[in-house]
Amino acid sequence: MTNAPHSRIRTDIPHSARIWNFWMGGEDYYEVDRLAGEAGLDAYPEIRTMAVQSRRFLIRAVRYLAAEAGIRQFLDIGTGLPTMQNTHEVAQGIAPESRIVYVDNDPMVLAHARALLTSTSAEGVTTYLEADFNNPEDILAGARHVLNFNKPIAIMFIGVLGHARTYQHMRRIIDTCMDAVPSGSYLALYDGTVDDPGYVTLCENYARTGGVPYNPRTPEEILGCFEGLELVPPGVTPIDRWRVDDPEHKHTSAHGGVARKP
User: Fold this and answer.
1) So what's the pLDDT on residue 82?
2) Is residue 65 predicted with pLDDT exceeding 70?
């Protein structure tokens, strides 16, 4: 972790993690992020619902992994800004001995890390790794200092790989990470999809702001990310419908799922 993250924070270019924080009703953003966030709402008003549903998807996925699949190690890549019920809080609430490595390369996320880590359980481990998902080998090397790669690990990409330059690059990142973990490990992933023109317009407008472009995928491409893995029922679905008892049927232009490495 850098010793001076504030020195590298760009306040003149919007950042997706800070815009997401704005959409979720947080306070960790700058004026440039607020303006980009409001422009996004104009193009796709449902983005606030999607932001909330994405966090609920994460919570349900981690609960499943910790409570039903027995996972005790989590590598959360591209974690974003802390918000309600983060990965370590959900996992350690079920299994206090859980070990969590958060990965991000945004200076504002790193600036919040120390305060967040005070809420880890006494039995477990929670730490941050400063790294870029475009360099998965570096992430894996850093995570080996905390996680035991001889035991199952949950690899998590929650709404971040749309920032990968191409779908092929997205698949390479996933495959590199999943190849490094043993049988019994899991992949939890969701990303935005192209099935709503308003959301596609939002992403196109964001790319013009100077922020790192976000490329929504087709639902079929999201499904392809789990190739060779065993999907947990109900498979790849809209995120608001994944393992919920009473689906709210909120419109979210995002698909995701969880799958086990055989």
Assistant:
1) 66
2) yes
Q: Say which residues have a Cβ less than 8 Å from residue 168's Cβ, sequence separation at least 6.
A: none
Domain boundaries 10-260, CATH class: alpha beta
Is residue 6 predicted with pLDDT exceeding 60?
A: no
Cβ neighbours, 10 Å, residue 127? 19
The alpha carbon of residue 64 and the mean position of all alpha carbons in its chain are separated, in whole angstroms, by 16
Note the pLDDT of residue 58: 95
Q: Where are the domains of the chain?
A: 10-260
Environment class of 220 (CB within 10 Å of its CB; exposed 0-12, middle 13-18, buried 19+): exposed
Q: What is the pTM of this model?
A: 0.89
Per the CB < 8 A criterion, the answer to whether 215 and 184 are in contact is: no
Measure the CA–CA gap between 244 and 262, rounded to whole angstroms. Answer: 25
- How far is residue 133 from each of residues 11, 77, 155, 164, 237, measured CA to CA in Å? 22, 7, 12, 8, 24
pLDDT computed for residue 231 by the predictor: 98
d(CA 11, CA 225): 34
Chain position carrying tokens 């080996």: 144
